[in-house]
Amino acid sequence: MTTMSVESVHWRTEEHRYRSPIKFGGVAVDRATLLHAAVTVAGSNGARATGLGSMPLGNVWSFPSKTLAYGQTLGALEWIGNRVGEAWRTVAETGHPMDLGWAMEKRMKGFADEATDKLGLAEPVPVLAALVAASPFDAALHDGYGKLLGTSIWKCYGQDLLPGDLSRFLGPEYAGVFLGDHVLPEPVARLPLYHLVGALDPLDATELASPVGDGLPETLEEWIPFNGLTHLKIKLNGDDLAWDVGRVSKVERVACRAQARRGIDSWQYSLDFNERCGSVDYLLEFLAKVRETCGQAYDRVAYIEQPTKRDLKADRANTMHRASALKPVVIDESLVDLESLELAREMGYTGAALKACKGQTQSLLMAAAARKMGMFLCVQDLTCPGASLVHSASLAAHIPGMAAIEANARQYMPAANKGWEETHPGLFNITDGLATTRGLNGPGLGAL
């Protein structure tokens, strides 16, 4: 068994503008701040390596607020990122990255509360925001460990390097459950790409009011043949039934036209309400209307992302049993720990969304827990460009049963992918609807 310790930590931020805005929970976003981390680790085998991690600081998604300005919520994530980086510099323990990452994750609530106090914020910083800010460091930790051993990190979760079961992380119910049994040591070769159909995105030429004019597709009808798409993720409002039903119906009409030209008759949708449905009754009425007015579109729906409020404890009345009897319903924003996963399952959620932005350590633990519970799993990104997409795609390619991946940055901030098209062409240049993931088996997280 090889253990490691942290020797040095460095980080920086990078700003990017979107080529067109995305709407998150009713808020249009036109920019992103990326946090890049580098963690140098020393192994008990005498080796040293520097692991790398990167993630957008998705403040509008992880810290939604009706009262705080964009700069305030972003500032909170940047403050936590700095605080986590300094904390890693003082860690004296040695161990496997799962052990070190778990110990740091237990400090997230404290970091969030500290940020709220130090910045004088009128609303508390959510733990989810702290997880996002900490995720590049956690990724770098795992990446560094794999590089110490000169192998893919996905081959480092077996009992030879991580002895013992998951009970030390997740409690006695996980005695006899081993992490290595819930990851693939080699990535699957290819995965379908989910394309985001944002609420502000034009579907066809009739909706194209302000062309970007940068040579990339401008409408969904153009994106489908450009990338050979077969999986579409549709963003919906959740508070306007007629608009939501009409949006799905028009996506279906546009997709039918575009796919007919390609000779394709089979494709899928996922639906994302960004927790804006007032109640599960809205979701049920929506599904009934879609089924009634556009049965083909209803049949194509593979799953539904968290439709109602993320605070499950305060929203216990909105159980998903009736909805999940129709389609898988996936917990997303609410998923921050095992307790939230268990509560979601109790409330009728049948699936869970894994996100690299919540940390490699937590993603692996939640994947194992959800698989033990027999839940549907998917991997989603946070409009991840460059290294963060490599990490997210590597996660999807190494968790058994994943049906597809997301890669939204190619649509909204392609400039942040510059250079990565050459190193990972099959992941960043897609023409047949499939992302090539077979090459995500280099040292660490997959050649970051």
Question: What's the gist of this structure?
Answer:
The protein is of the alpha/beta class and 448 residues long.
Can you put this structure into words, describing what you see?
Helix 4 (108-118) packs across helix 5 (127-149) and helix 8 (241-262) packs across helix 9. The protein folds into two domains: 4-170, Enolase-like, domain 1 (2-Layer Sandwich), CATH 3.30.390.10; 190-436, Enolase-like C-terminal domain (TIM Barrel), CATH 3.20.20.120. It has 17 helices and twelve strands. The model has no long low-confidence stretch (mean pLDDT 96). Helix content is 38%, strand content 19%. The longest helix has 23 residues, at 127-149. By secondary structure, the protein is α/β, with parallel strands linked by helices.
Key traits:
2 domains; 448 residues; Enolase-like, domain 1; 3-stranded antiparallel β-sheet; 9-stranded mixed β-sheet; 19% strand; alpha/beta; single chain
The CATH class label of the largest domain is Alpha Beta
Reported by name, the CATH topology of the largest domain is: TIM Barrel
| DSSP helical segment count | 17
The proportion of residues forming helix, as a percent range, comes to 25-40%
Mean pLDDT: 96
The proportion of residues in beta strands is: 15-25%
Number of domains: 2
Rg, rounded, reads 21 Å
Number of strands: 12
Order of helices and strands: EEEHHHHHHEHEHEHHEHEHEHEHEHHHE
CATH superfamily of the largest domain: Enolase-like C-terminal domain
Distance from first to last alpha carbon: 24 Å
Second rung of CATH, namely the architecture of the largest domain: Alpha-Beta Barrel
Shape: globular
Structural class: alpha/beta
Enumerate the spans where pLDDT stays under 50 for 5 or more consecutive residues: none
Reported for the largest beta sheet, the result is: 9 strands, mixed
